[in-house]
Amino acid sequence: MSDAKYRRVLLKVSGEVLAGDQGYGIDPKMLDTIAEEIKEIASMGVETAVVIGGGNIFRGIAGSAAGMERTSADYMGMLATVLNALALQNILEKKGVFTRVQSAIEMKELAEGYIRRKAIRHLEKKRVVIFAAGTGNPYFSTDTAAVLRAMEIGAEVILKGTKVDGVFDRDPMKDPAARKFSELTFFEVIEKGLKIMDSTAVTLCMDNNLPLIVFNVKEKENIRKVLTGERVGTIIRKSR
Ligand code: GTP
């Protein structure tokens, strides 16, 4: 065991992160980086669930599905998360990390269906549980799925791995003068219009008092620092 501050966490990885520098699909180097981070969390004895996005494969109505009916586009996005989940499962198991994939849309030939109590049992047995297919419903983002699953399994915190160091007042990729916040409240996130997650996900966190840490997944040491309570990235809570 280790000096981890948390017993159970949910890691949200966006599809975009998985695409790495190639901007589309799964970058094997990035997949490896993320798998190493997850292995590190698991090796610290922390029970780990993962929700993965799908934007690296299918961007939804804002991109590939322009002009398409929203519900169809959203289902296609959910299928994209299943591809990512299977890729992540594969690399984790190659690294010796036991995993289970649970899908919110039944496809029993390739993954277990989502059953809350079974997911908790897997976590207790120190398996990494990867939740695929979002919430299984259109109109809900994978960020919202992450918050929902985190609450259902009793995670103490959501770790949101991104390509940047935390939450900034402007886009740090476009403006080098952007300033990073080290802490925020969910209310401030809404008030300032900061684009961390969609507003459904943010209010769900706020209403249920679930803290969120946004950090750079590309920095190797970050995950260990986050788990031992070192200040990394931006922490967002209900109140300061
Ligand atoms: P415990 O009984 O708690 O030890 O969990 P377990 O996951 O090892 O038991 P189970 O017998 O349910 O699963 C054995 C394997 O089959 C695991 O790799 C599961 O992920 C997989 N599995 C279980 N249910 C399904 C399913 O509905 N579809 C698919 N494709 N695989 C499943």
TrEMBL record:
A GO molecular function annotation here is: ATP binding
Gene3D superfamilies linked: Acetylglutamate kinase-like
The entry's ATP-binding residues are K12, V13, S14, G15, G55, R59, T162, F168, D171
Q: Which domain of life is it from?
A: Bacteria
Involved in allosteric activation by GTP: annotated span: 20-25
> Activity regulation per the record?
Allosterically activated by GTP. Inhibited by UTP.
Please provide, in alphabetical order, the Gene Ontology terms of the cellular component aspect for this entry. cytoplasm
InterPro entries from the entry? Answer: AceGlu_kinase-like_sf, Asp/Glu/Uridylate_kinase, Uridylate_kinase, Uridylate_kinase_bac
Q: How does this protein assemble? A: Homohexamer.
Protein name listed in UniProt: Uridylate kinase
Q: What is the scientific name of the source organism?
A: Candidatus Manganitrophus noduliformans
Gene responsible for this protein: pyrH
